[in-house]
Amino acid sequence: MSIGIIRVFTTEDQQILHAHGNKIEKLYNINCVNRCIPDQPKGIYDDESEHKAIPKIIELAKEMEEQHAVDGIAISCAADPGLELVRQAVTIPVVGAGSCAAHMAKMVSRKIGVLTIANEVPAPMTEILGNSLVSWRKPEGVNNTADLLKEEAIEKSISSAEELIGDGAETIVFACTGYVTIGFGEILKDRLGIPVIDPVEAEGNILSFILRGG
Amino acid sequence: MSIGIIRVFTTEDQQILHAHGNKIEKLYNINCVNRCIPDQPKGIYDDESEHKAIPKIIELAKEMEEQHAVDGIAISCAADPGLELVRQAVTIPVVGAGSCAAHMAKMVSRKIGVLTIANEVPAPMTEILGNSLVSWRKPEGVNNTADLLKEEAIEKSISSAEELIGDGAETIVFACTGYVTIGFGEILKDRLGIPVIDPVEAEGNILSFILRGG
User: Which of A42, A164, B158, B187 has the fewest CB atoms nearer than 10 Å to its CB?
Assistant: First the structure.
C-alpha cells in the first residue's frame, strides 16, 4: 500500500520534498510517493498562482494513480488547492491537508484557535470551522515556511499559541504544513497541554484510517 | 494513558460493555475504561430517554476523570448525547462517536451515504454532513442493535450499502455504533472498495491522535 503526497511548489531539494512523506511514513508506517508541481518555486501565494498550479496538481494526481498505483492522495497544503477537481480526475480517495486538520479540530472542540503564517486563514478551513473558530494568530516575523526555520520562530510561535488560549481557544490547529518540519506540534502539546492538530499528521491519519481500516 | 468509553444504556453483560473498548484497544493500543449509565436498559430512543440519560453521562464522565484519571472520553453513541455539557463538566478532551464519524467522512468525500438502524440520521451527523449527505438507508428488518446480530443482518446491510452507492454515495458512514460489533466495516470495505467510516473506530482514532500526537 502507498499514498501520493503532492507538494504545491517546486523544489529540487530531496529533503524538503520528502519532509511530509517522511513524517507520515514514520507515524503511520505507510509508504509515500512524494512529488512536487513543476515551474512554481514560489508555490501558491495568490489567486493567479493558485490558478496556474491547479492543472499541475491534477496532472500529478493522475500520474500517481496510473504510474505509481498509489491507493490514496494527499494534497499537502492547508489551502486544499484543487481538491474537488482532483477528486473528479482520479478514482482513489483524495484528501486536502487543510480540511483534514479543520475537521479533526472540530471533532474535539467548539473553541478552536488557528495558528497561521499568512494574513488570513485558508478559505476551506474557515468554512469548516464556522463559529468554532474563536481566533487566529500569525507569529511575529513569520511570513512564509522558510521563516519557520529561523531560530526565534519557535518562541514566537509559542507566544502566538499562548495568545490563542488567551482568546479562548481550547484546541489549536495549524493552518500551515510547515509546522511539521520543525516538529512544532509535539513542542506545543508538551508546553500547553491542549490538543494540537497538525495538517500533515491529519492527512496521514485519515488516509491510514480509510485505507487500512481503523 | 487511558480513555473512558461511555455506553449510553445499561448492561450487566461484560462482553457487551467492553465491545467498543476492546475494538479501540486492539486498533490503537490504548487502554480503555468501559462504563455504562445506570437504570436505562433500553438506552436512548426518544427525547425523554435522552433527557434522562444526559445527567448520568455527565456524572460518569466526571467520575472517570476524577477516579480513573482517564486522559480523554468518548461518548460512544452516534447521536453524541450530552457532548457539549460533558465538555463543560470535565477538563479533558471529550468526543462523540457520531460527530467524529461524520467529520471523517467529510475529510474524504462530498458524496456521503449513511447507513443507520433508525428511521432518521442523528441530528449532529446531519448538521455536519450538510449537503454532502446524498442518501441514507436502513437495512430491512434491522431496527435496533440486537437485530444486527441476526444471521441475515449482514446481507441486508450489504444490500443497503449497495443502494447507497446507487444513490451516488462515494463514502459510507455508519450512524450506529453497533456495526463495529459484527465487524461490518471490514466486510463492507472488502466488498465495495470505497471508504467506510465506523463511529467506534473514528472516536478511537481521534483520541489516539490527539493524546499521542499523530
Answer: A42
